[in-house]
Amino acid sequence: MSTSPQNENLTRRRLMMGLPLAGAAVLGVGFWKMLAGMQHGSFNPHDINAPVLNRPVPDFTLPDQPPGEGFSAQDLRSLTKPVLVNFFASWCIPCLAEMPTLMSLKDDVTLWGIAYKDRPENAANFLKHSGNPFTRLGSDHEGRVGIEWGISGVPETFLIGPGGIIRWHTASPLDVDTIRNTLAPLLEKLKTA
Amino acid sequence: MSRPRLTSLRRLVPAFLIGLSVLLAPALVMAVDDPSEMLPDPKQESRAEAIGSQLRCLVCQNESIEDSSAGLARDLRRVVREHVAKGETNKQIMDWMVDRYGNFIRLSPPLSVGTLLLWSMPVLALLLGLTLAFFAYRRRAAAPAAPPPLSDEEKARLAKLTKD
């Protein structure tokens, strides 16, 4: 090694300057990615139940929720095209706010609804007023099916791929950004697959 | 000046304690506010309570399901009691919950690569710091090499610089 002490000092000084800068840059990029993800809906720090993802839907059978016909895990597993399953309740204000978005979505994807911890007559009334985007409707009056799916509140939405595999989940109301940036590309992928 | 202030503060302490107990009272009675929830067998009930106190209420997030009055917490309490009554082990019930809600539902996270790294981080950071300090110290302790004597050319330059 023939580096002079001055040179060695210089590289050390550069390292002392560069390492923290590089560390800060890495952290900055990471935080920026998280924030960007939060903004367009692909990352949600409050999303707590990941375990259901990429698993088949849990076993359940739901009675009819008027005006729709109830359904079971078997119905979802025998499907060949994607379905969006939405847990809602008449007592849930964010669900009410989400309804116009679901109505605008119903021509692009099949929607099935589950009325969570709700009296069937209240849920039916809710759908009469907000519009009904769902082609099948089950009533989870006791909330036990919600626990099987791992939901922690309403609204929650699951994208079910062919064969009844849960492909995507969100624990917050669907909005235009989430649909455009996350849901639409996923649906496109499932349709071509 | 300071004396009256102190007494008024002293008078405030019991008031504060009473206020605090009023605030905390609902939390204390919560777990027993509906006796119909409890299992008839006190042994099974205490086991269910022990399991429930290890499960996070996913609505309030920093309370256990035994402490929370949220609807989901009540439902999960019932699920725990059903499983206890069926004679399942604590581990079976925990696994049932984790299977649906992930490790987030456990108030004390399990030992894994991630949590091990998290918990050992202070020790690792301390060791790293000590190692760095040790090498820096040894370097400084080693006799600093005397700078080589100035060459004639450098001496001339220095003389020229100091003259100005």
UniProtKB/TrEMBL annotation, chain A:
Predominant location: other
The compartments listed are:
Cell envelope
Record's keyword terms, sorted: Cytochrome c-type biogenesis, Disulfide bond, Membrane, Redox-active center, Transmembrane, Transmembrane helix
- Please list every transmembrane segment annotated in the UniProt record, as residue ranges: 15-35
Query: What cellular-component terms does GO give this entry?
Result: outer membrane-bounded periplasmic space
UniProt GO BP: cytochrome complex assembly
Which InterPro entries does this one have?
AhpC/TSA (IPR000866), Periplasmic_diS_OxRdtase_DsbE (IPR004799), Thioredoxin-like_sf (IPR036249), Thioredoxin_domain (IPR013766), Thioredoxin_ResA/DsbE_sf (IPR050553)
Which residue intervals define the domain Thioredoxin in the entry?
Answer: 51-188
Q: One MF term in GO for this entry?
A: antioxidant activity
- What this protein is called in its record is Cytochrome C biogenesis protein
Which organism's genome codes for this protein?
A: Acetobacter tropicalis
UniProtKB/TrEMBL annotation, chain B:
Cellular-component GO terms for this entry: plasma membrane
Set out the biological process GO terms recorded for this chain's protein.
Answer: cytochrome complex assembly
Q: What Gene3D superfamilies does the record tag this protein with? A: Cytochrome C biogenesis protein
Care to name a GO molecular-function term for this sequence?
Answer: metal ion binding
Where do the CcmH/CycL/Ccl2/NrfF N-terminal domain residues begin and end?
23-161
Q: What is its main location?
A: membrane
Pfam families per UniProt: CcmH
Please state which protein family the record places this protein in. Belongs to the CcmH/CycL/Ccl2/NrfF family.
Q: What does this protein do?
A: Required for the biogenesis of c-type cytochromes. Possible subunit of a heme lyase.
Q: What is this protein called?
A: Cytochrome c-type biogenesis protein
Q: What is the species of this protein?
A: Acetobacter tropicalis
Taxonomic placement = Bacteria, Pseudomonadati, Pseudomonadota, Alphaproteobacteria, Acetobacterales
